[in-house]
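Q: I'm a student working through a structural biology exercise. My instructor gave each of us a protein and asked us to get a predicted structure, then write a short paragraph describing it. Mine is MerR family transcriptional regulator. I'm not confident about reading structure output yet, so if you can add a plain explanation after the tokens, that would really help. Here is the sequence I was given:
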Amino acid sequence: MNKHEMYSISQVSEITGLSKQVIRKWEERYQLVQPERLENGRRIYNETDVQAFLKVRKLTESGYPVSQAAVIVHTKEPQEVTYSFKDPEISDYFLQLIEKGTHCDELELNRILKQAHHTLGLSNFLSDLILPFLKEVGDRWEKKEWTEYQESVSSMVVRDYLVQIRRNYPYREDAPLLMGACLPGELHEVQVQILLLQAMMKGWKSFLIGSSPAIGSIEALIEKFKPRIVLLSALTTIPFEQNPTVLDQLDHFAARNRSINFFLGGPGAIDYTKDNLPKHIEVVQTLEEVFAIRG
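A: Happy to help. First, here is the predicted structure for MerR family transcriptional regulator. I'll explain a few features afterward.
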């Protein structure tokens, strides 16, 4: 067994956010797992054990009693299990990232990202590991299980690694240009980095304006580089709260540049545009929708 698949009770506590007392209680009262014992009597857990604790925690947060959650995990009812990875190796990388993120260990986070990238390939690395990891980071920060520093370090290391990949990704000089930008006031650009990389895998070259640019900068750079596609992102509703006219301004700009395809995405944008749908900017949830609409 790979050494990364063995965890002490302290590591399990860090990964799952459960106290050692809760881990022992779930283990003994509900027979959730049966950890191995070292010669000194200490518990040692494998990856399947850690996943069981994570799944039960998620189910209890959804309202299930612990006893019922334990039964669901044991019977492996797929519709109820929220932590599932198609590849055990991806699951192992995910748990390692959570552990190192808990300790804000930048060097180890970067090492794991590099190893996972080369092992999984870029497409699986982005969709099957990075997106679930970022979601978990965000969830832990929102629930105050992680501090702002833990969230910031983990997100920053991922962002910097994706920037490095994108800068070194080969593309044809005559490839069409896709430009990505966060809306003014939106500081989270990692999702845009992922979208740009996914577009580059489809034969595009990319340009990122960055987080929280001025609206004038977005318009000036679009006019200068004339991209085929512009992806605007709002992970939160903060841009619309800070500047209630920002969407109207960009929609009017899109109307004056009909040769360019404008798209808007992100949870914040999806939520806001339910009652404020723009006329000249398409609201989408996935990159596949972008190319399907354009196409």
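A: Here are two points you could use in your paragraph. Residues 78-82 have pLDDT under 50 and may be disordered. The CA atoms of residues 32 and 71 lie 8 Å apart. It's a good idea to check both against the output above yourself.
Q: Great, thank you!
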